[in-house]
Amino acid sequence: MRIATWNVNSIRARIEHVVSFLQQYNIDVMLLQELKCTKDLFPSQIFEDLGYNCAIYCQKAYNGVAILSKNIIEDIVDGSSIFQNDDQTRYIEAFTGGLTVASVYVPNGQDRVNVESGVPYAYKLDFMKKLQSHILSQGYAQNNFVIGGDFNITRDDQDTYDPKIWNETRIACTKPERQAINEFINQLSLDDAMRKHGCCDFTWYDYRHNSVAENRGLRIDYILTSQKLQTVSCITDISYRKLQRASDHVPVISDIAEDSI
After folding, report:
1. Pairing relation of β-strands 29-33 and 65-69?
2. How far apart are CA 67 and CA 69, in angstroms?
3. Phi and psi torsions of 74, nearest 5°
4. Structural domain boundaries of the chain?
């Protein structure tokens, strides 16, 4: 089974890129983030015509996550029942093709000024705690489980193009954030598919500073799987970052052995 994750930074603006990607790689399950549209404007019909079922949790102009699957999608749960009193649409999970899959868009946390004031930064760390608690309470990690998305955190310096620039004062690289994602992975006994298969590519490139040509990026997007599942590969495709009107993220693709599902 082939699973991919991609922060598309507006599904309506990148629909042609997403369709091309799905067809090129013959994706079975697609996890999307940062849809930036309401449910009625999500291009469900385009994906249905390609043979996909859709589960969507989104809002006007911001955030938004979705699961596309060639299999029936069941037992859909969105973030409203997990992150109570939070109107930001950042998480959706469902059962499809023998797997529980989840698409997540972790808050960015914004800049250093806000780190010092603690407000958006605290929201980010609290989000990670609640997400970990939810997955732990459901026992997903002991079964067939995949969570993919934009975590907005680097695990360590290997995930940055320059640790001197992206140091502990920068959002996505601070000690509390890195502790949060590494605890999330370790406490839930998840495999980091990119690391497992030696993929050291970056997944986000700034629109400024000629970042793609100079390979000045970060790895902040992940496919994480329960150890019961056996991933056989994990790659990225930077060509989609080089297109006109591209997302600032690149897609991540992982193949899971059918006999482990």
Report:
1. antiparallel
2. 7
3. -130, 170
4. 2-105+146-153+192-260
Contact 109, 90 (CB under 8 A): no
In three-state secondary structure terms, 203 is: coil
Q: What torsion do the CA atoms of 205, 234, 11, 145 make, to the nearest 10 degrees? A: -130
Identity of the residue numbered 225: T
Q: Comparing C-alpha atoms, which of 168, 175, 155 is closest to residue 218? A: 155
pLDDT tens per residue, range 60-93 = 999 999 999 999 999 999 999 999 889 999 999 9
Residue 59, amino acid: Q
Domain spanning 2-105+146-153+192-260: CATH 2.60.120.260? no
Nearest to 195 by CA among 168, 222, 171, 215: 222
DSSP letter string, 94-118? EEETTEEEEEEE------HHHHHH-
Gap between the Cα atoms of 223 and 254, Å rounded: 7
